[in-house]
Amino acid sequence: MNGTFEIQLETLRHKFRERAAMQSDTLERLLSDLEGDSIRTGAQKEIQQIAHSLAGAGGTFGFLGISARAAALEDLVSEIFELSAFSSACQSLISEIRRAPLRGND
Amino acid sequence: MIDVQHRSIPSIPSFGTSVQPAIHSDRPAISILAASERQEALAETLLAIGYQAVSQCLQANVNHAQPLRSVSAAVVDDSVDNPLEWVALNSVECPVILVTSELSTQARLAAARAGVSAIIPKPLDVSELAEWLNDLVGPHRETPLSILIIDDDEILAQTYASTLENAGMRVVVETNPSAVLGQMTVLYPDLILMDVQMPGIDGVELARIIRQSRVHLALPIVFLSAERDLARQLEARARGGDDFIIKPIDPERLVSLVRMRADRAIT
Question: What is the pTM of this model?
Answer without folding.
Answer: 0.61
